[in-house]
Amino acid sequence: MKSKFKADLSKEQRLTPLLDFYYKKYLKQYFFERFLDLKQQLLGIDLILTNKKTGLVYVVDEKAQLDYINETLPTFAFELFYSKNGVEKQGWLFDASKKTHFYALVTSIFSDEEEHFTSCNITFVNREKLIQHLTGLGLDQERFQKIVAEHKGHHGKLGLEKLHPWHEGYLFFSTQNKAEQPINLILKLDYLIDIGIAKRLV
After folding, report:
1. Burial code of 44-65, b = ≥16 C-beta within 10 A, e = fewer?
2. Model-level pTM greater than 0.85?
């Protein structure tokens, strides 16, 4: 199983002009600066948004559903853990080294016959509020580590006591079909919007 890093990087680069078009159209109150170097991106920095009036600065990490072109999914996968060379690593959601204030979740990505991206949805998620909400449900980083340890070797969906699996979220273990064997928290976008953690830009 090969990592799809290079293929995803190419798609990301082709998606960028469309995202920048939407930011310019819908975030007129902000200056925005895009970072393309890997060092910054590894810190969870794809964009810096600066409020034109207040000068407040927000760090944005873009996450795009590039495996699901021309599809509309109601959920998004938040990475809790992944494997590298057989060693379990911290996923980006709870990674303390990340500088991210907001995730820009890019979904419903559509392309034409020439594979030019033509439209997408962007949902902004406040990272701190999300982590606080999960912690309030008893689903902090430590709890997720315990759940994962208790279900070693599990593949597929796993329900969580505090989240409704149809309307809110669940865990998903990709231990058999992906090189990095990610363990993700799958959350409904409408749920995040309803509880005030997320906002749809477009």
Report:
1. bbbbbbeeeeeeeebbbbbbbb
2. yes
